[in-house]
Amino acid sequence: MSLPDKMSGVVLTGHGGPEALVWRDDLPVPRPGPGDVTVRVAAAAVNNTDINTRIGWYSKGEADAGDAAWTGTALGFPLIQGIDVCGHVAAVGPGVDPARIGQRVLIEPCLTEAGGRALPEPWFLGSECDGGFAQYTRVASRHAHAVDSALSDEELASFPCSYSTAENMLTRAGVGPADRVLVTGASGGVGSAAVQLARARGATVVAVTGPAKAAALRDLGASRTV
């Protein structure tokens, strides 16, 4: 599959409000390098980290203090944001199996490889490198995970950041079938993911939520709500 030369997308031009976001129709389509895949974006969710990155919330001081990215470094502008992405592999670089072309994938938001090299510190999609708020994005093949699901592209695009965060917490805690897990903020993205993933591990889940959302969380796997 040949790639076009240009694509449309939303570019962050600097820290600020929505006015810092600019629609462009002349962005270059990223070509895959060694070990890379270029993904045609089918859906990209707006995560709170996209908003926090835009406004400079991660900075220890002022938004322009040079430490406003996830890694504590300065953001490079213009930047294509978008940490949560579902799409299809459109092209592969040297060293990647051409059979990957056409695969439906979710992109892992925390990147440990880019440009054919291991990164000394993790990058985050749409922060230290361009993300999914465009027609195409590029990542190392290892970070594009094939999915076979009846869920829509939009539904799947809500998974990467929240579910990987919840899974990392459960893995670090070593949660298993004999455990009882209390999930605070259980109706949020990470919280609802933690409820489902803890239940999938066989744990008993107690979810902290308001009355209006208690039934929905029990449907997701919570044994009790408080």
Please provide a written account of the structure.
This protein is of the alpha+beta class. Helices cover 20% and strands 31% of the residues. The strands form 4 sheets. It has a 5-stranded antiparallel β-sheet. Strands 10-11-12 form a 3-stranded parallel β-sheet, with helices on one face. A two-stranded antiparallel sheet has the order 1-2. A hairpin with an 8-residue loop joins β1 and β2. α3 (160-173) packs across α4.
CA distance, first residue to last residue: 52 Å
Fraction of residues in β-strands: 25-35%
The description of the largest β-sheet is: 5 strands, antiparallel
Structural class: alpha+beta
What's the shape? globular
Oligomeric status of the shown chains? single chain
Mean pLDDT: 94
Strand order of the largest sheet: 8-3-4-5-9
Number of helices: 5
Q: What CATH first level of the largest domain would be assigned?
A: Alpha Beta
Helix content: 10-25%
CATH superfamily of the largest domain: Medium-chain alcohol dehydrogenases, catalytic domain
Would you identify the regions where 5 or more consecutive residues have pLDDT less than 50? none
Radius of gyration: 19 Å
